[in-house]
Structure formats: structure tokens, C-alpha cells
């Protein structure tokens, strides 16, 4: 009986090993490979279905766009289109494609592909395209010329950064439900195209010889998915991988001093905020004190944002009070120091005192000027964030010091979204990541986005509404003169900052690191402050050059082999011992 | 009944392991109770630890070192004992109450009530306990009461089974029949005859349920399903792991909470088994 | 009689499965009904696009329509799409299941050493061996398996560096064939041992008390009276009879080991069912959690059914009753 069990178990173990082995097998060769470690798998290589950062990186590599973005400042540059011309009314742009463009499979890339992508994505509302193409219409003039007309003045033009898909592959898919297509064809126009994806483990992209900038200077990129930050960092140290993205802060600290490894704290406008319920939608039960701008300013001044960055982010972030509407800091206004609402607990207390919020019953918590209720705010935080807990502990502590009490509840993202939609909160902490163009993020705080029906919530999660802001928004949305538009956005963001409905706690960062002995030519986007990969268009990939004779991948050390053998002996020994025992018992019986 | 208990106690007193366990448990309970008097909860709030060293190894100032925010690990364990013991006991209480009520109802009423209740009990017995607790906790709010509820709702079936079988055996005994013949009401029957007879075993099973509740609480907290505003032993381990204590070799951060868990769980288990042996004649080793 | 027993057990298991399906659906859809808004926060999508996504994730229509659709999908082996990765849940589970079978299978085998220890301890009740084995078992039984994992990682991986810190293979490994299998074994030693250590105590304790119960039976006295050697009495008579409780324990334990694997797999980054569960908790990824819970429950229900039937087969008294 027991022996049979043992044999069965062994068989299961062997079978499992085999299956796992075959699933993992991938050929080794002498190609020059950039190996990127990250902690997020792909969701889908299909740009009409996927939505994770990892997938955007894949599309950035695989699909070139009509216009490219400068590494330094996201300025619009020629891409697949070598030039363009605007009509007099600024509504129509005529793009001329480069000569001899080809897809990676050798098929010609023509104006038909461009027009098909723009028109179909508009008609079918592809999730990653339609924000750009919703009002556009594309017309093929000739093989290399396409005319794009916007139904409304669009300040984003002539930037055309949607992924152009190969019509000869995708047309067939668009006939049915395009989002279900596996998109494993690997045909693209970018620097690298997808060769193989082993879900949960890695994906490989190979150089595209037909890339319009010319073939990349190395053969392939392997993206390897890690589930544990420490393992990823260990692999970088050991030279098994060349680059790591999104290193957990504890591990990142240790890398900054490492020889031969360069660390990058890359900012892309992503930020975390403490939001206060403005109740503009008329639903919910936010605390009335939060409608008083003095209370909101007092809360902002009670928070030591530098301490949050130092202690919670371990310095891997930046104190910046401006709503991060774009990775490009040209959109951020300068706030005069006097208006910055910097850490000043005494000033915060004075604001509250002067406005009549006093602790009349001596319990340490202030009351409303009419004495009706104490300044006790519900504070909602996320459960699955490793900064939410420490942030909350510090912020509620500081608020207590100025006489504001809090009651903390913890929710997962779905629950918190529902709580916010219902308006039944006072404060919550969350964050956003912007697109390059500031328009989407700016639009979230217009009155139109305030939730009035909890069943269909808008994006304006602080329920804040200002006619002045809305008027400015409409203006910038149609302003075709970039300098004027920047001016308008500055005005909006200053207004938003001074209202203090959001306290922007900090701008967080992508923590990245790379080995210096393998490749050179890493480019930060935007200049000086951005990340080197996983940036908006990730120009590093086509800039990288392998270092001659640089670090050799792989190679099993003797120590490892000894450890493997020792380990195997232990496991096998246990099994043999087990089997032997049962045999001996068998013998005893004879 | 009273004689039964004092008799059991005198036998228990001679069980050395049980007595050591009892002493350990009393020690932990005392720690949980006196913690608010001997320390200040504010001392382990991050806002007050800005000047403490982070990741400090044990020293005379911090006998079990500090964590990533400079908070004393020893103090966290002391405050954590309150949460862990509270959840362990409250969840057990809920388990026992649900289990006893269902077991009593099932055994006493018999018939289809019994059939339905036992079917449900069987369902809960077979469905794996921890995954059920995980999915329940995942959809509910993160709070201590959620944890208590989740443990209670998933772990009552064995108590229900135990109580039911006891009720059946008591009921079949002559004196209950006689009481019924004398016209005693059902409530009277339950109170005077059945409850006193099932109580000792329920006590033993309570003692054995506490360690399971405590382990479940730590596991749920460890998986990130606990209440992050309350420090429990499982939560300390969760933070230690998330912040890379193992890689840093910060043993003072993840060893002590584990040792505390093992001591409490082991003590409850040993005591419970000893009580079971003393109270259940069939288990007594002659 | 016999057939009735088998059919009864199968029907019981089926009813449990149905209960799990219903519980599983309503738990997730009633308490937390619409994750789409939070998933696509800040994606600049129109309400129409969000509605189409609801259709994709089977979140449109009334609860009852959703339930019918859910059951219909289940019958086709379709578990829906993961909210996080938007990949089919069944695909993710199919990938994750082999590493878990490998890990749980190996550690169960190792933990079964506890049965042998338990028999020996039970037979020589009161001996030093018994005392030692029992105390060690009680100790390991009291340890949370994930904590054993942390300590093992701290000592053997981070400290001594004998074993890798986690994963199924070395990252970036291009090993093939035997080398690859050895590499996987190397990665599996720590997690498998940790799980085995956590559950060996339970096997030992149950096997021990089963042996104690059996050793009191009259027929053993009879066998002794017939003049059989003590060792023969144990092997021919006591051990086979003490097997019964151990069989049912193995089935129940299967559930525990699978559950224990949740925390241990996430500590060791073992790409199995447990790690997927840990991933799905954060978010949370409801379709993933639903699928995983269904799978784990179904596996445990089947294991219990198998144990019941085996028990009935080994001990006809049970089935005949």
C-alpha cells in the first residue's frame, strides 16, 4: 500500500517536473540580448484589449507612430511621417509617410494602414486609441499621403501617437470582436517585435530590420517577470539580467551604492494625494467643515510632505504640490512660497483658531464654530498599497496634533471606488498617473465629472466644482497656440492648488537600475528626471549599444552545482528511505 | 457536575505539561492586560519615531531592535498580543456559540431539522477552511471584526458535530426520558440535563479551537487581509516580509512574533489536549 | 447496501460542489458587484466603453442573469477573465497547477514519514522515542507554515546562501534537460521541506493515536496469546488496522497542505495556485479568486470522496452500516 503510494507520488513529482520543464524550455543561443526584469506580466499583446504598463511598453516597441516624441521634452518629432502640413483653420493635417516603409514581415506600410487604424479605432472605440481618434477622420490621398481632419479644434494635433496596426493582419480580426484576438502575429513597424510570450514568465522581442530608424544594434530583448523584488535585484547583481524596473524601495536603497550599477529615480508625473470631499454632486455625507477653505488649508499645512518622502518613500520621490497632469513639467506652474501650504503646524492651528474651530469641551478635538460636531474625519485608505499604511499613520498623527481627529477605514480598490462614488467619506488617500497631454487629467476635475449618481461615477473623486476652472478648461481644450495653452493650464493648476481640495502628498517615482557593463546609450525621458525604460515612448531601446565583451550571461557556478546535487540527494534520500522501509517491512513478513 | 469539574481539575494539576502551558498562557494574558499601563501606544506610531534609528538590531534601548520606521519591535509584540489574543478568543467564542447552538438544535430536535443542519455542517466541514476564510475576508472590509466573523463562520462545524453527538448520547440515557415523562419543558431539559453534560467537552474543544483561531488570524493578516490599523503578530510578520526583513537579515523583526505565536498556540494545544483527556473517559490512558 | 453507500457519498460530494458554486458566485457578486470603475480609473474611457467592458467580464444584466451565465460558462470550463491580467482564468490556473502539484505532492510524500514515526511511537507508547517524537510534532504543528518559511529563507537562503531565494528556476536560466530538472529540485527543496515540516506533526499524532487505539483491541491480545512475536503482531495485525484513520487524515490534510501552500508559495515565489491566490487578494481580482476557490474546493471535495470510498472499501463495516 505504502509503496504504491510512494511510487504514485514519485510519478506525480516526475510528471510535474517534466511538464513544468517543457513549459519553461526556451532555446539558448549567442544572440546579443538585453534582459529586462520587471514585476508585472503582460495582460495582452493586443492594443485593443490590454491596459497594463508592461503592455504599453510592448506596443511602444512594436508599433511606430505617425509622429514620435522627443526624448528630452516630448516635443512632436517626425515618426513614420517625415513631415506634415496644417490647413489654415488648423483642423486638417496632411501627413507624408517616409519612403519605402515596410512592416517587419516585409509587407509595405502605406497610408491605407494609417487611415484604416484611425477610422476603425474611432468606429469601434478601441480603449487605447479612441481618446485620440474619437473626433478624427482619415483619408488616403496616395500611398504615402494621408489627410486627417478633426471635427473640433484639437490642440493635441499634429501629434499622432496612436499605434498604427498592420491592416493586412488586423482587418480580418476587426470583422469580429477585435479584443479577443491573441495578437501573437509579431508583425509591427517598431524597433522590436514580439516573438514569444510565456505567460507568467517572460516574453521575447526580436529586432525589426525594417524599423524606419534602421535595425537596432542588438538582437533581442527578453522581458522577465519576477514576483519577488529581492529575487529581481539579486539577478541584476549576479548579471543574469541587465535592467530592473519598479524595484521595491527597501531593495532600491541597497543598489544606489553598488559598483557597476546605475540607479534611476524616474518621474512621470504620477502622484499620491489626500483628497477632501467637496460635496459638489449633492450626494453623500461629507463633513461640513471640509467646505471651509481654511480647514482645507490647515490640513495641508499640518502635513510634513518632506517627511513622507524621506521616511515612507525612502527618498525615492519628490515633494511637489502641483497636480501631476503630465510627465512634462512645462505644464507645472510656479507657486509663490507664501502660497505653498508648506508644513507649519502652528500656522495650521492658528488658521483653525481664527476661523472659530475651537476645542470647547477640552477632549483634544476641535468642534465646529457652532459647536454642532467635532472635527472628526473619516479617513479611507487602500489595503493593497505598501505606502498607504505608513502614510496614514503619519498623516493622522499630524492631524491629531492640530486637534483634528480621524477614523481610519481600509478598503480594496473596488470598495474604495464605491465609497468615493457614494460620497460617504471625508478624506481618502489615493493616486493618479497622467498621460503626456494634460487634457485628460485636467478634464477629471471639471464639474461635468462630478458624481451625481453613485451608479455611474465620474472621475472627479473629490466632488469639487468651480466655474472658473471649467471656463479655463474649455479654453485650453481649444487653444491651438501652445504657449497660450501652457499659460492657461498654469492658471488652472494654480487655482486647483490654492483650493486645496487635493493635497498632493508627493510625486512618486519609477525606481530603475541597470548594469553599466552591458549596454551604453541609456536615455531618460523626459530629460534629467524621467525613467530610462517604461517612459512614454522609451527611446532608450533604439539608442542602446552593447558594450564589447561585456558581461556574459548565465553560466552555472560550481557552488550552485554542489548545492543542487546536495539538495537532490536530500529529497531522493528521503524517498529512498521511505521506499526501503516499506520494502524491509515487506521482507519481515516473508 | 461540580464534583466532576473539581475532580478534573485535581487530575489536571498533576499534568506537568498542562500546568506549564497554563503558566505560559497566564503570562501572555498578563502581558496583554498590563501593556497599556506600562507603555504608551503612541510610542509605536511612526509620527513619534522620527528620531529612532531604523532597522536597529537589539540593544539596551530597544531590546528587540526597531523596524523600517524606527518603531520598537518589542513594543509592537506587546501591543500585538492584545489584538492576537482578542481575535483568537472572540473568534473562538463565536465558533463555540454557533457550533453549540447548531449542535444542540440538531441533536435535540432530530428529524428533518437534524438532517438539514447536518447537511450544512457537512458542507462546511468539507470545504477547505482557509481558502473560504480568505475569499470571505477578501470581499469584506478590513477590520478586526471581519476576521472574527470569518473565523467563526468557517470553523464551527466540528463543534456542532461534537455537541450533537453528546446530546444524542445524553438524550438516550434514561433520566432524560424520565424528565420528559414528568412533563418538563424543552428549555428545562436543555438547561438542566443536556447543557451541564455537554459543557465539559465544549470547554476542552474551546481550548483546542483558540490556537486554530490565533493561527488563522495570523495567516489572514500575513496574507494582507487583516486590519492594517491594528498591530497583530501576523501583521508584524506581514510587514517584516514586505519590507524585506528576511533579506536584510533583520531576524529580530521576524523571529520574535513567530516565537510568540508558537508559544501561545503550543500552550493552548497542550492544555486543551490535557483537558480533553481528563474530561473524556474514553481518552484516559489507564 | 454497498451501492447505496457509494451513491450516497457521491451525491453528498455533488451537493457540496453545488453549494460551493452558489456560495462562490453570490459572495463575490453581492458583496462587491462592480469592479470596472476602479479597474479603469484614470484611463479616460467613456461610459459606453466601460459598459462594453462589463459585458466582457459578465457584469451586465441582473444578478440572476449573471448567475445563469456564470453556471453556463462553468459547464463549458470557462471561468471568466482575470481583472488584473485580462487573461482567461482557466488558462492562468492551468499554468499554475503543475508547480503546485509538484510542490504539494513532494511535501505530502515527505510528511508521510510522520506515519511511520507515529506507528512506532504509538506502539512503544511512553518510550523516549515516543516522548521525543510527540513533543517535536506538537512543536512543528504549532508553527505557522509561512513563518517556518521565513526562518528557512533567512537561514538557508539569505544567510548561508545554500538555496535560491525563490522561484521555480533561476531567472534567466537557459538550462535544459537534466540540468533544468536539477535546478528545479534545488529550488523546490526549501518550500517542500517547509510544508513537510509543518504537516509531519499532524500525520505523526494521528498515526500514533490510531496505533494506540488498535493496540488495545482484543484480537491483538489473542494474537499475542497465540505466541506470535511482538514485531509480527505489529506488522501483521496492528499496522493494517491503524491505517484507516490515516487514510482519512491524508484526504483532510490534502486540503490543509493546499491551503498551507498559499502562504508558502508566496514566500518562495513559487508560481503555483497559492501564489496566484496571493496575487488575486490584492486588488482584489474577483474572477481569479472565484476560480481558485472553486478549484481548491473541488480538489478537496474529491479527495474527501476518495477517502470515504477507500475507507468503505478497506473497512466493510463502514459501508455496510
Molecular structure report:
- The complex is a heterotrimer of chains A (590), B (286) and C (321).
- By secondary structure, chain A is an alpha+beta fold.
- Chain A has helices spanning 2-24, 53-62, 111-124, 130-133, 167-175, 229-237, 249-255, 293-302, 305-312, 345-354, 388-401, 413-422, 439-443, 467-478, 482-499, 540-543, 558-589, and strands at residues 33-38, 67-69, 76-78, 81-86, 92-97, 136-142, 145-150, 192-198, 202-207, 220-225, 243-245, 261-276, 317-318, 376-382, 405-411, 427-432, 502-515, 519-520, 545-546.
- In chain A, a hairpin with a 5-residue loop joins strand 4 (81-86) and strand 5 (92-97).
- With 286 residues, chain B is mainly alpha-helical.
- Chain B has one domain: MetI-like fold (Orthogonal Bundle), CATH 1.10.3720.10.
- Chain B has helices at residues 2-13, 16-38, 73-109, 111-126, 129-139, 144-155, 157-172, 174-181, 186-222, 233-242, 245-248, 251-279.
- With 321 residues, chain C is mainly α.
- Chain C has 14 helices and no strands.
Amino acid at each position: 500500500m505504502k509503496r504504491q503510494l510512494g511510487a504514485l507520488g514519485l510519478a506525480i513529482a516526475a510528471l510535474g517536473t517534466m511538464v513544468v520543464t517543457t513549459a519553461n524550455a526556451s532555446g539558448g543561443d549567442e544572440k546579443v540580448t538585453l534582459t529586462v526584469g520587471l514585476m508585472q506580466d503582460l495582460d495582452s499583446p493586443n492594443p485593443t484589449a490590454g491596459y497594463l504598463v508592461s503592455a504599453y511598453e510592448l506596443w511602444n516597441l512594436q508599433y511606430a507612430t505617425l509622429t514620435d516624441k522627443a526624448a528630452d521634452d516630448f516635443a512632436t518629432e517626425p515618426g513614420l511621417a517625415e513631415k506634415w502640413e496644417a490647413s489654415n483653420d488648423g483642423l486638417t493635417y496632411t501627413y507624408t509617410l517616409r519612403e519605402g516603409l515596410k512592416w517587419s514581415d516585409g509587407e509595405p506600410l502605406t497610408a491605407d494602414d494609417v487611415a484604416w487604424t484611425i477610422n476603425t479605432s474611432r468606429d469601434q472605440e478601441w480603449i487605447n486609441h479612441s481618446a485620440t481618434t474619437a473626433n478624427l477622420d482619415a483619408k488616403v490621398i496616395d500611398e504615402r499621403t494621408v489627410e486627417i481632419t478633426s471635427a473640433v479644434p484639437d490642440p493635441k494635433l499634429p501629434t499622432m501617437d496612436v499605434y498604427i496596426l498592420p491592416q493586412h493582419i488586423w482587418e480580418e480580426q476587426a470583422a469580429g470582436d477585435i479584443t479577443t484576438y491573441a495578437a501573437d502575429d509579431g508583425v509591427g513597424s517598431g524597433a522590436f517585435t514580439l516573438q514569444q510570450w510565456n505567460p507568467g514568465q517572460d516574453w521575447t522581442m526580436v529586432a525589426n530590420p525594417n524599423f524606419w530608424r534602421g535595425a537596432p544594434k542588438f538582437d533581442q530583448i527578453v522581458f522577465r517577470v519576477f514576483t519577488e523584488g529581492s529575487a529581481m535585484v539579486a539577478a541584476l547583481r549576479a548579471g543574469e539580467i541587465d535592467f530592473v524596473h519598479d524595484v521595491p524601495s527597501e531593495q532600491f536603497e541597497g543598489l544606489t551604492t553598488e559598483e557597476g550599477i546605475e540607479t534611476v529615480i524616474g518621474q512621470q508625473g504620477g502622484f499620491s494625494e489626500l483628497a477632501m470631499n467637496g460635496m459638489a454632486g449633492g450626494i453623500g455625507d461629507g463633513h461640513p467643515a471640509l467646505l471651509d477653505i481654511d480647514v482645507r488649508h490647515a490640513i495641508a499645512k499640518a502635513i510634513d510632505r518632506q517627511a513622507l518622502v524621506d521616511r515612507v518613500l525612502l527618498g525615492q520621490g519628490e515633494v511637489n504640490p502641483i497636480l501631476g497632469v503630465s510627465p512634462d513639467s512645462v505644464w507645472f506652474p510656479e507657486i509663490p512660497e507664501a502660497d505653498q501650504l508648506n508644513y507649519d503646524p502652528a500656522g495650521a492651528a492658528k488658521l483653525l483658531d481664527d476661523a472659530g474651530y475651537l476645542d470647547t469641551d477640552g477632549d483634544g478635538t476641535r468642534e465646529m464654530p457652532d459647536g454642532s460636531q467635532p472635527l472628526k474625519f473619516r479617513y479611507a485608505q487602500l489595503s493593497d498599497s505598501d505606502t498607504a499604511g505608513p502614510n496614514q499613520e503619519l498623516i493622522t498623527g499630524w492631524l491629531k496634533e492640530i486637534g483634528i481627529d480621524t477614523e481610519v477605514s481600509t478598503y480594496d480598490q473596488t470598495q474604495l471606488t464605491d465609497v468615493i462614488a457614494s460620497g460617504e467619506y471625508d478624506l481618502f488617500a489615493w493616486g493618479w498617473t497622467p498621460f503626456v497631454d494634460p487634457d485628460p487629467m485636467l478634464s477629471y476635475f471639471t464639474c461635468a465629472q462630478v458624481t451625481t449618481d453613485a451608479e455611474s461615477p465620474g472621475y472627479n473623486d473629490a466632488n469639487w466644482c468651480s466655474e472658473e476652472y471649467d471656463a479655463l478648461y474649455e479654453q485650453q481644450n481649444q487653444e491651438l497656440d501652445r504657449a497660450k495653452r501652457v499659460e492657461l493650464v498654469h492658471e488652472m493648476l494654480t487655482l486647483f492648488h490654492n483650493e486645496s481640495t487635493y493635497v498632493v502628498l508627493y510625486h512618486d517615482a519609477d525606481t530603475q537600475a541597470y548594469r553599466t557593463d552591458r549596454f551604453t546609450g541609456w536615455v531618460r525621458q523626459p530629460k534629467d528626471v524621467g525613467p530610462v525604460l517604461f517612459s512614454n515612448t522609451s527611446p532608450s531601446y533604439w539608442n542602446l549599444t552593447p558594450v564589447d565583451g561585456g558581461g556574459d550571461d548565465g553560466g552555472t557556478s560550481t557552488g550552485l552545482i554542489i548545492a543542487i546535487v546536495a539538495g537532490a540527494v536530500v529529497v531522493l534520500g528521503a524517498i529512498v528511505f521511505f521506499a526501503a522501509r516499506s520494502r524491509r517491512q515487506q521482507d519481515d513478513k516473508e | 457536575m461540580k464534583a466532576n469539574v473539581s475532580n478534573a481539575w485535581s487530575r489536571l494539576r498533576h499534568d506537568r505539561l498542562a500546568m506549564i502551558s497554563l503558566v505560559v498562557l497566564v503570562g501572555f494574558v498578563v502581558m496583554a492586560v498590563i501593556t497599556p499601563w506600562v507603555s504608551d501606544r503612541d510610542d509605536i506610531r511612526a509620527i513619534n519615531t522620527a528620531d529612532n534609528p531604523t532597522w536597529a538590531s537589539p540593544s539596551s534601548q530597544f531590546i528587540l531592535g526597531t523596524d523600517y520606521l524606527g518603531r520598537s519591535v518589542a513594543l509592537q509584540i506587546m501591543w500585538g498580543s492584545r489584538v492576537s489574543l482578542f481575535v483568537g478568543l472572540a473568534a473562538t467564542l463565536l465558533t463555540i456559540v454557533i457550533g453549540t447552538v447548531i449542535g444542540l438544535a440538531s441533536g435535540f430536535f432530530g428529524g428533518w431539522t437534524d438532517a438539514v443542519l447536518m447537511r450544512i455542517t457537512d458542507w462546511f466541514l468539507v470545504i477547505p477552511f482557509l481558502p473560504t476564510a480568505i475569499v470571505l475576508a477578501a470581499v469584506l472590509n478590513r477590520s478586526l471584526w471581519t476576521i472574527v466573523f470569518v473565523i467563526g463562520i468557517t470553523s464551527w462545524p466540528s463543534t456542532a458535530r461534537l455537541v450533537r453527538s453528546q446530546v444524542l448520547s445524553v438524550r438516550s440515557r434514561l433520566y432524560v426520558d424520565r424528565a420528559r415523562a414528568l412533563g418538563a419543558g424543552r428549555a428545562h431539559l436543555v438547561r438542566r440535563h443536556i447543557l451541564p453534560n455537554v459543557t465539559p467537552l465544549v470547554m476542552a474543544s474551546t481550548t483546542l479551537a483558540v490556537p486554530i483561531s490565533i493561527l488563522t488570524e495570523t495567516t489572514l493578516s500575513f496574507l494582507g487581509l487583516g486590519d492594517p490599523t491594528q498591530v497583530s503578530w501576523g501583521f508584524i510578520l506581514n510587514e517584516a516580509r514586505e519590507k524585506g526583513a528576511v533579506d536584510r537579515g533583520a531576524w529580530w523583526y521576524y523571529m520574535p512574533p513567530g516565537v510568540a505565536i508558537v508559544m501561545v498556540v503550543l500552550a493552548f494545544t497542550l492544555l486543551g489536549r490535557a483537558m480533553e483527556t481528563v474530561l473524556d473517559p474514553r481518552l484516559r490512558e489507564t | 447496501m454497498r451501492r447505496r453507500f457509494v451513491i450516497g457519498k457521491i451525491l453528498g460530494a455533488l451537493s457540496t460542489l453545488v453549494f460551493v458554486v452558489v456560495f462562490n458566485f453570490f459572495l463575490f457578486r453581492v458583496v462587491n458587484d462592480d469592479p470596472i470603475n476602479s479597474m479603469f480609473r484614470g484611463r479616460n474611457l467613456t461610459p459606453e466603453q466601460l459598459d462594453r467592458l462589463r459585458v466582457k467580464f459578465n457584469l451586465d444584466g441582473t444578478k440572476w442573469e449573471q448567475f445563469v451565465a456564470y453556471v453556463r460558462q462553468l459547464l463549458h470550463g470557462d471561468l471568466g477573465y482575470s481583472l488584473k491580467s485580462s487573461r482567461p482564468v482557466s488558462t492562468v490556473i492551468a499554468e499554475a497547477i503543475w508547480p503546485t502539484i509538484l510542490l504539494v505532492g513532494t511535501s505530502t510524500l515527505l510528511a508521510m514519514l510522520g506515519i511511520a514515526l507515529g506507528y512506532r511511537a504509538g506502539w512503544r507508547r511512553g518510550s523516549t522515542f515516543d516522548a521525543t517524537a510527540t513533543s517535536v510534532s506538537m512543536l512543528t504543528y504549532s508553527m505557522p507554515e509561512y513563518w517556518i518559511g521565513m526562518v528557512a529563507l533567512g537561514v538557508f537562503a539569505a544567510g548561508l546562501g545554500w538555496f535560491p531565494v525563490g522561484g521555480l528556476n533561476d531567472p534567466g536560466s537557459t538550462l535544459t534537460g537534466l540540468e533544468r530538472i536539477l535546478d528545479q529540485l534545488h529550488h523546490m527543496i526549501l518550500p517542500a521541506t517547509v510544508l513537510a515540516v509543518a504537516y509531519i506533526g499532524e500525520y505523526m499524532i494521528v498515526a500514533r493515536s490510531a496505533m494506540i487505539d488498535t493496540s488495545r483491541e482484543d484480537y491483538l491480545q489473542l494474537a499475542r496469546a497465540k505466541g506470535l512475536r511482538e514485531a509480527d503482531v505489529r506488522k501483521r495485525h496492528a499496522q493494517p488496522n491503524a491505517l484507516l484513520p490515516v487514510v482519512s487524515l491524508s484526504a483532510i490534510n490534502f486540503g490543509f497542505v493546499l491551503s498551507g501552500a498559499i502562504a508558502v508559495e508566496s514566500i518562495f515565489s513559487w508560481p503555483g495556485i497559492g501564489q496566484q491566490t496571493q496575487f488575486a487578494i490584492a486588488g482584489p481580482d474577483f474572477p481569479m479568486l472565484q476560480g481558485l476557490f472553486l478549484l481548491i474546493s473541488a480538489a478537496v471535495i474529491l479527495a474527501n470522496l476518495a477517502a470515504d470510498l477507500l475507507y468503505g472499501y478497506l473497512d466493510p463495516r463502514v459501508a455496510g452500516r
